[in-house]
Amino acid sequence: MRSELSNLRPILFAVLMIAFSACQSSSSPTPSPGPKAPPKSWLVGANGQMLSINAQGEVLAHNSVTSMNLSGLTCVNKDTAWAVGDQGLILYTTDGGQQWNTQTTPTSENLRSVSFASATHGIVVGDHNTILVTDDAGGHWQIANTPVSGHDKTLWSVKLAVQAGVSFAVGDNGLALQSKDGGRNWNFLNTLQNASTLRSVDASADGTKAIAVGDGGMAFLLNTQGGQSLEWQTVQTQTLYTVHFLSDENTVVAAGADGVALTGTLRLQDVHLLTTGTKEDLLTLMVNEGASDAPNKITLAGRKGVIVFFPSITDKSILISSPSNLDIFSIDDLTGG
After folding, report:
1. How far apart are CA 321 and CA 337, in angstroms?
2. Domain 41-333 listed as CATH 2.130.10.10
3. pTM, 2 dp
4. Separation between Cα atoms, residue 204 and residue 161, nearest integer Å
5. Which residues, in sequence order, are CB contacts of 308 under 8 Å at separation 6+?
6. Which residue ranges make up each domain of the chain?
7. Whose CA is closest to 74, among 235, 286, 223, 225?
8. Chunked in runs of 10, what are the mean pLDDT values of the chain (337 residues)?
9. What number of CA atoms fall less than 13 Å from residue 250's CA on the CB side?
10. Quick one: DSSP state of residue 258?
């Protein structure tokens, strides 16, 4: 009997070793998926929400450093961006959005829009005619000189032309301002009496073309050379909240209330409606100007976290799933588009 047990010991040992190895193999952790692709664009909005879209088209939610509304966003390159919001809040990042820091500002007014022409020179506008300008990447923000009397108007949008130092700001009751010294001093552009509120403005890189859109579906072409403005043109009955030049700087895309979006020439001739697939208000848009393969990829966003993507202005829209149902107020591309 002892002899038989002795003969079985090597066999039992081998069986135990095989079982032990199998247990180890079955309990080994499954390799975790690789890290998410880095953000290619950022979105900000209500309650301080911060979202990003990566190269795979995934929308990711990020921890925010504030619970206040963030109304404006601009990116100047893949690393550097600014976001502005309520109570004079200005945030900036120099690492592609991994970390956002606050900058000291001389105002507690709600800030609505921000535009930078370089990594150092930028302008912010907001409530009560507020205009701030910096020449050192926000290290120091200074209050600009404006001709607006009283403090009852909000400036909703600002655009600093990249090449020219010419700037435009628009706001309540058709208010339109122009600066020729990089935003330090401002003058009125002639506007119509009792005009509707202007919600968004964009300009060509050389500052010779500018267009604004606003309430009542109105569009307003600014003649920047003579400091004059052309007449309003009604292009839709819905309010238009956002406008952007396409890469040729002769065609614009605009979007607004009830999911309306359209493209047209600079003078808003040959207007074509885009089918967005949503009835939510579209508050902001981004044109990927730097993409050589498809220079006019368009992303729109707005109420309840809706995000709509057009691979080109001739393609069908794609609704992108978002992890948030909060309003999105601003979007921009990390390539500085």
Report:
1. 23
2. yes
3. 0.85
4. 6
5. 261, 276, 277, 278, 282, 299, 300, 301, 317, 318, 319, 320
6. 41-333
7. 286
8. 46 38 38 58 97 92 95 95 98 94 97 96 96 97 88 92 86 90 88 77 87 83 59 72 90 94 80 94 88 74 97 91 96 78
9. 2
10. G
